[in-house]
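hey m, so remember when u said the tokens were messed up on ur end? i reran from scratch. heres the input so u can diff it against urs
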Amino acid sequence: MKILKKISIFCILIILSISLVYVCDITNLPDNIIIFEGETLSLNTIFGVDIETESTTNPNIEKIENHKTLTVSAEAQDLTEVDCTGTINLNVKLLGTKVKEISVNVIESTEVVPIR
């Protein structure tokens, strides 16, 4: 009886530890992200956590998806002709269930010149 009780407590501790790792991974992802045109954003997740594109406001924004990494790139040949700004809504899913939504805003790149 004591061995069965110790094994069940050990199993519960293992399950709680794994749950803590997943909760920490998901809560570390920000709700809103802002990037400039031409920058690349990579979001890395652990096994079982997937990131999928829900919607985008601009079809010129390039989206490349892998199993664990989503790369959002706003690149164009000539940025004066093509507008690469907009918003991409991403869904974070844990084992197929939506657990979080991330909004990625791609804004126009600006140049700051310091003056003395």
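this time it looks ok to me. The two ends are 79 Å apart (CA to CA). if urs says something different then somethings off w ur setup not the seq
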